[in-house]
Write a structure and sequence with these properties.
The protein is of the alpha+beta class. It has 2 domains: 38 residues; 84 residues, Beta Barrel (OB fold (Dihydrolipoamide Acetyltransferase, E2P)), CATH 2.40.50. 21% of the residues lie in helices and 31% in strands. It contains 3 helices and 8 strands, in the order βααβαββββββ. The protein has a 6-stranded antiparallel β-barrel with strand order 3-4-5-8-7-6. Strands 1-2 form a two-stranded antiparallel ribbon. A hairpin with a 5-residue loop joins strand 7 and strand 8. Helix 1 packs antiparallel against helix 2. The chain is elongated and about 70 Å long.
Length: 133
């Protein structure tokens, strides 16, 4: 079956169309049938789901995201590990001290060379983070 993230108007219609195409004996007609049946399939991903994972040269990449902090822990190297309300997990790259608490609104901004900076929404001080998940 098709993987999650692929959307189409009516799954049962697509399934029936693909089964009908597989019955075609002529190779060219079968390929043409599959092309017609799959022409309506679209792949959609929410922009925040991919934020921090896409390659830095992606022209459609978001310049920043804003989210609420849901959990803050320290990893075994004394780096902040922050979980956001959108499910993303970010880990501090540098060694600066920075205080952030659950419930605070933060902004993660894209830097140069695929780097990311985290700051509190009401502040201009930012530190380097990377996406862990």
């Amino acid at each position: 079956m098709l993987s999650a993230g692929i959307a189409f108007a009516d799954e049962s219609t697509l399934e029936r169309s693909l089964l009908a195409c597989s019955d075609q004996q002529d190779d060219a007609e079968r390929l043409s049938c599959f092309d017609r049946a799959t022409a309506t399939i679209t792949i959609t991903r929410p922009p925040t789901e991919r934020f921090g994972k896409e390659h830095f040269s992606d022209p459609n990449a978001n310049p920043s995201i804003t989210a609420l902090v849901t959990n803050v822990t320290m990893d075994n190297r004394d780096k902040l590990k922050i979980t956001l309300d959108n499910g993303q997990t970010w880990v501090q790259s540098g060694s600066e001290r920075y205080r952030v608490s659950p419930g605070e609104r933060i902004v993660i901004e894209r830097g140069s060379m695929n780097s990311f900076f985290l700051r509190k929404a009401a502040s201009t001080r930012k530190i380097r983070f990377y996406r862990a998940d």
